[in-house]
């Protein structure tokens, strides 16, 4: 009997954590389509809210929501929703953090390990074959042996949504700045503006525009580099476009979560648009410890692409010049005060690049 | 009933923290099935993203480097680690999963300081932190690897 009560209380806790966002986040100010049931096993699970109807493109989806909202809410500095503070990625329905993924049948492989059954009929035949090839390649290593982020390539938007490390969200009436300390990747959302691309090329995080519906921010991103949803997950193409719907939710237990309902549009890699949900929670312990985002210097990571196309690390004293020598080839190599911090030995910073003449 | 309600809220709360045990890169260069002990003095404790690095020099003058989780992750662990936790010259034992290619480095699993305090710097590349309660005593007994510790302690 006592055991039943304890389990009942635990279940109540899970319900408190899981139910509120399901009820409180919709894609439009009009009644949304019926949400799909969230996986019951995870207390942080949030139901995926699909678009109010099927759209062929992100542009159709974004413009529909904007028409429904009569152009949206024009905020002032005083009224724009404040999402300040440090945040970290939490449960999502696409990769890794939720135990579920549309790219696998049943539970996903634990962590980032090999195995699992690739779901068929989600990706186009070409991309499904590529994904299966990636999964096969993982088997001898029990994970993806080389990650394109090894050398600090930008994550790209889908991966930006779920990577570890820390986020900051700064909203102003005309722009929202979303910072990830991973590789210093910052997304800029231009509010109540049109897409612009004077670069003549795509970029890692593309071009994002948005509008507010009261406290909900709708974002459309295009012109991105091809990338992947996560390590060990499928790639997507350079025609990917994304609609994201953001809202800050306070749970019944007082916990704040930022929740994004996301729909991926990519006719090259997806048979049909794919919807999912991503969440973030306040990084209270990190804030309490006094953490502040610093510029991420890729050299201090020392990760390299090693032999046999695997990720590896460079060790102190191995190839390369010191950090100072790399930056200042015209100056004396023993110039005082040129280590990154005082009292470091020179070889502390031998994480420089291999000289071109070697 | 109040206790049950508290337990319910705790159930919700314990699910909330998110560990950041998945780094930006692959860990395939480390061997997670081997745990070795390297002892020496701290040359540098690099508390920086994307990964922390513990660089030590052993008694023979050989320099070793061990990759740990990122600073935001270590700030949330107990004992907490910051950039000031380990000082140059401190004696330290590092339990690590070695590089498969045999070079002098690995994935950090456990740090044990001279006073016997065990720290968990591990990222997903090494699971030695799962034995963090055992390693201080095992190191005190002189075991240099998990294999030795298992043999000495009669663990299958």
UniProtKB/TrEMBL annotation, chain A:
Region of interest (Disordered), residue spans: 302-358
Highest taxon, organism lineage: Bacteria
Keyword vocabulary terms for this entry: Signal
Keyword Signal (UniProt): yes
Residue ranges, compositional bias (Basic and acidic residues): 316-328
Signal peptide: 1-26
The protein's name in its UniProt record: Uncharacterized protein
TrEMBL record, chain B:
Keyword Signal set for record: yes
Signal sequence annotation: 1-23
Protein name: DUF2314 domain-containing protein
InterPro entries found in the cross-reference section: DUF6152
Alphabetic keyword roster: Signal
Protein origin, superkingdom: Bacteria
UniProt-listed Pfam families: DUF6152
């Amino acid at each position: 009997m006592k055991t039943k009560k304890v389990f009942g209380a635990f279940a109540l806790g899970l319900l408190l954590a899981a139910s509120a966002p399901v009820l409180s986040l919709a894609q439009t100010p009009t009644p949304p389509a019926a949400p799909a049931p969230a996986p019951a096993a995870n207390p942080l699970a949030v139901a995926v809210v699909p678009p109010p109807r099927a759209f062929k493109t992100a542009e159709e989806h974004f413009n529909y929501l904007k028409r429904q909202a009569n152009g949206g809410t024009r905020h002032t500095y005083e009224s724009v929703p404040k999402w300040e503070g440090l945040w970290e990625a939490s449960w999502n329905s696409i990769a890794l953090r939720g135990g579920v993924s549309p790219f696998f049948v049943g539970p996903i492989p634990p962590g980032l390990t090999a195995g699992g059954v690739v779901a068929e009929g989600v990706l186009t035949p070409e991309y499904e074959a590529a994904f299966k090839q990636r999964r096969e390649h993982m088997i001898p290593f029990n994970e993806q042996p080389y990650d394109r982020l090894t050398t600090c390539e930008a994550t790209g938007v889908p991966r930006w949504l779920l990577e570890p490390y820390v986020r900051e969200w700064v909203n102003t009436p005309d722009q929202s700045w979303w910072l990830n300390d991973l590789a210093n990747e910052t997304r800029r959302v231009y509010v109540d503006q049109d897409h612009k691309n004077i670069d003549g090329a795509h970029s890692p995080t593309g071009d994002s525009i948005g509008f507010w519906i009261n406290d909900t921010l709708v974002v459309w991103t295009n012109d991105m580099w091809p990338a992947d949803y996560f390590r060990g997950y499928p790639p997507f193409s350079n025609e990917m476009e994304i609609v994201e719907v953001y809202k800050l939710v306070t749970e019944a237990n007082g916990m704040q979560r930022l929740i994004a309902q996301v729909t991926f549009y990519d006719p090259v890699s997806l048979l049909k648009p794919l919807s999912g949900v991503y969440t973030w929670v306040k990084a209270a312990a990190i804030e309490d410890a006094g953490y502040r985002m610093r510029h991420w210097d890729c050299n201090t990571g020392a990760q390299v692409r090693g032999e046999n196309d695997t990720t590896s690390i460079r060790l102190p004293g191995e190839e390369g010049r010191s950090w100072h020598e790399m930056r200042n080839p015209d100056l004396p190599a023993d110039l005082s005060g040129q280590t990154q911090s005082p009292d470091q030995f020179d070889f502390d910073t031998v994480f420089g690049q291999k000289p071109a003449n070697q | 009933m109040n206790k049950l309600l508290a337990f319910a809220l705790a159930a919700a709360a314990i699910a909330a923290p998110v560990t950041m045990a998945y780094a930006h890169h692959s860990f395939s260069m480390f061997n997670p099935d081997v745990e070795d002990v390297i002892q020496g003095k701290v040359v540098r404790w690099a508390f920086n993203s994307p990964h922390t690095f513990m660089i030590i020099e052993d008694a023979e003058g050989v320099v070793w480097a061990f990759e740990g989780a990122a600073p935001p992750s270590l700030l949330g662990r107990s004992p907490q680690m910051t950039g000031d936790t380990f000082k140059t010259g401190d004696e330290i034992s590092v339990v690590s999963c070695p590089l498969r290619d045999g070079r002098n480095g690995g994935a950090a699993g456990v740090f044990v300081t001279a006073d016997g305090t065990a720290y968990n710097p591990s990222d997903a590349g090494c699971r030695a932190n799962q034995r963090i309660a055992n390693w201080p005593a095992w190191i005190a007994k002189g075991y240099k690897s998990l294999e030795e510790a298992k043999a000495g302690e009669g663990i299958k």
